[in-house]
Amino acid sequence: MKYQLDFSPKASTVSPPVTGAYMSGTGPQLFAAWQPSTWPAASASSPGEFIELLKRIFEDSILGEVRNVIEDITKSNGTLAFRGHVVAIAMMCALDAISSYGYRGKKNGKFIASHFPDEYHPYADQIYEVFRLSLVHSWNLFEASIYADNSPIRLEGGTLAFGLLNFFDALVAGTEDFLNCLPAGGDLLTNAISRYEELRATAKP
User: Fold this and answer.
1) DSSP-derived pairing of the beta strands 144-147 and 159-163
2) Whole-angstrom Cα distance, residue 150 to residue 77?
3) What does the radius of gyration of the chain's CA atoms come to, in whole angstroms?
4) In what order do the strands lie in the sheet with 159-163?
5) pLDDT tens string 191-205
6) Sign of the CA dihedral with 11 first, then 13, 15, and 21 last
7) How remote is the C-alpha of 100 from its chain's centroid?
8) Which residue stretches of 16-163 are H helix?
């Protein structure tokens, strides 16, 4: 697998805002993964360079941020228990953001079925319906369960459940698989470039 996410700190010579528009003076505008105003045009890159850009955005501004929160909570509490709810919400939002590059129209289920580890495939649509919709829109789970551990996805008496750490690992693996499918071209790469340029166009220069 060529594209593997790297969550190690990246060297930078500037200290741009941590989010929002990049406010520069007369200095050069350097790439910052969380600021679309600094993203180069996809047309100026080869497919391989574009995929590396997308990889950097995913690892630095999306999954790396979630991973940092998980590590901070674990260092402070020793466990995600009683703190995992907000992590679960962040992971569902991360799934939304990443899947939008390949599958438009809230196709989280398609992304899971196509790129997550095999054990998640039978539950792809349920994850969107009973986890993502409930957590993001209602802040609570009503027909599903999450655990503050690495337990696998499963049905418990008809209720879908998984461990937060297991889901995060699956999300990372799914993102890597998605990136490694892009060099083949076709609709997936076209959709990824279209989404990238759409987001880039919304940023203030």
Assistant:
1) parallel
2) 16
3) 18
4) 144-147, 159-163, 154-156
5) 999 999 999 998 876
6) negative
7) 10
8) 47-57, 63-77, 84-99, 108-115, 124-126, 133-138
Per DSSP, helices labelled H in 28-80 are 47-57, 63-77
CA 173/CA 153 separation, integer angstroms: 15
Alpha-carbon gap, residue 74 to 68, rounded angstroms: 10
Q: Among residues 115, 117, 85, which one has the least CA distance to residue 98?
A: 115
Tokens representing residue 36 in the block: 């679309």
Q: Over the chain (205 residues), what is each successive 10-residue block's mean pLDDT?
A: 83 54 56 90 87 95 94 90 82 91 79 96 84 69 77 89 93 97 93 94 80
| 67 residue type, one letter | R
Tokens at 34, concatenated: 């969380």
Cα dihedral value 129, 163, 119, 190, nearest 10: 60
DSSP-derived secondary structure letter, 121:
G
Task: Please give the angle made by the CA atoms of 133, 138 and 140, to the nearest 5 degrees.
Answer: 95
Could you give the angle at which helices 164-181 and 63-77 cross, rounded to 10 degrees? 160
Per-residue pLDDT tens over the stretch 122-161: 999 888 776 776 777 666 766 567 888 999 999 888 888 8
Q: Measure the CA angle with vertex 189, ends 178 and 8; round to 5°.
A: 45
Distance in angstroms (rounded) separating the CA atoms of residues 155 and 159: 5
